[in-house]
Amino acid sequence: MFSGIIAAVGRITSLTPREAGFRLHIDAGSLGLDDVALGDSIACNGVCLTVVANEGNTFAVDVSPETFSCTVGLDAPGEINMEKALRLADRLGGHLVSGHVDGVGEVLRFDPVGDNRLLEIRAPHELAKYIARKGSITINGTSLTTNEVAGDVFTINLIPHTLESTTLKHLVPGSRVNLEIDLIARYVERMLSGAA
Q1: Phi, psi (degrees; rounded to nearest 5) at 135
Q2: Cα–Cα distance for residue pair 60/184, rounded to 1 Å
Q3: Which domains does the chain show, CATH number per domain?
Q4: Rounded CA separation 94/42 (Å)
Q5: Given a cut of 90, is residue 131 above it in pLDDT?
Q6: DSSP codes of every residue in the chain
Q7: Local confidence band at 51 (pLDDT 50, 70, 90 cut-offs)
Q8: For residue 57, which of 2, 13, 1 has the smallest C-alpha distance?
């Protein structure tokens, strides 16, 4: 589990083809790796990935074709948002995040509002019902609160700290982003549906 509070911006430096998928080599930036062991989880752009190698300030993860097919931002060198998995004693500064991307959204607007930015995203239609006004959503691993929701489109206000601390500052209309809906919404729907 994660909190959606981005700990550092790292960089995918290279991708090595494997029999199925790729091994990503990642420069951890300011993310401390002293307490990271093989098998630990690190969320990369909101995707929970398993550390398969680490040395110095770099680590590697294997990404399957399935993960590539339902996410964005892992298929080429470039910056990524990163967060280590939570420990039970950690503060939950954002909201509970599983690191399982539900779908890919499209940025419609990224407009300045003073020092802030108004971010407008179109979610896949099948996910829109889980997105509520003033609810939690994860975008590229970042825990955020929605402002308005209208059909498949929702807006978020990004404050300067979030812009400085994440890769979200690079978004433009047409950018695609990883979305993870609130965990609670999934379970509420399941209970209300009466599914056995």
Answers
A1: -100, 175
A2: 31
A3: 8-84 (2.40.30.20), 103-193 (2.40.30.20)
A4: 16
A5: yes
A6: -B-S---EEEEEEEEEE-SSSEEEEEE-TT---TT--TT-EEEETTEEEEEEEEETTEEEEEE-HHHHHT--S-SSSEEEEEEEPPPTTS--SS--B-S---EEEEEEEEEEETTEEEEEEEPPHHHHTT--TT-EEEETTEEEEEEEEETTEEEEEEPHHHHHHSGGGG--TT-EEEEEE-HHHHHHHHHHHT--
A7: very high
A8: 13
What's the token pair of residue 188? 């509420």
Chain segment 168-180, per-residue pLDDT in tens: 999 999 999 999 9
Look at residue 196 and tell me whether its pLDDT is greater than 70.
Answer: no
Nearest to 97 by CA among 82, 76, 118: 82
d(CA 25, CA 110): 30
Q: Give the C-alpha separation, 137 to 124, whole Å.
A: 14
Rounded Cα distance, 93 and 129, in Å: 25
Confidence bin at 87 (pLDDT 50/70/90)? confident
**Angstrom distance (rounded) from CA 180 to CA 69:** 15
81-87 mean pLDDT: 93
